[in-house]
Amino acid sequence: MKTLYEVLGVSRQATQPEIEQAYKVTLAALAIEPATLTVEERDIREKVIREAYAILSSSHRRSAYDEKLRHKSRPTEPVISSPPLPWKKIVATLVLVVGCLYVYQVQADKAEAELAALEAKRAEAEADRAEQLALAEQARLERQKLQEKRAIQVKQDQEIAQVRRDERIRQERIQKMDAQATQEKASATR
């Protein structure tokens, strides 16, 4: 187990300015460390560095910590640090693959929905066009019926006019004949 001095990389006899300088250097080194650390590991290390600085920068807290170190027996066994387990990379890769598959599925669903919407719009447009054609055909048929009615009406009007002319001519002939008969009677009586 590391001591707070080891965390900051200073000796137990380090002065206050040396501790402050080591704190800044250690934080900077953590910031540029390779991306092998996870976010949680970085956060934990940063908290440990900040706590070490907080204790060692206060003279009262530092003396209490030094007293604790004198009474504490250090283990004789060396601490073996193990490299990060590869399963983290495997899990990260699996998460990435699952995320990609999810994004692909979402995009495929979205494309399918857009295609269905386009088909629906096309069907709606075709239905509108068919309705417009039906309305145009209905209007054409109505115009044709109206023209036929007008033609029949014109023919009837012509026939009525012809009948009236014929009647007028017959009336005129009857009047001529009556006038002639009256003249003949008048000439016969004379």
Automatic annotation (TrEMBL):
Pfam families: DnaJ. Transmembrane segments: none annotated. Residues 171-190 are annotated as: Disordered. Gene3D superfamilies: DnaJ domain. Residues 101-156 form a coiled coil. The keyword Membrane does not apply. Keywords: Coiled coil. Residues 180-190 have a biased composition (Polar residues). The keyword Ribonucleoprotein does not apply. Residues 3-69 form the J domain. It comes from the Bacteria. This is DnaJ domain-containing protein. It comes from Herminiimonas contaminans.
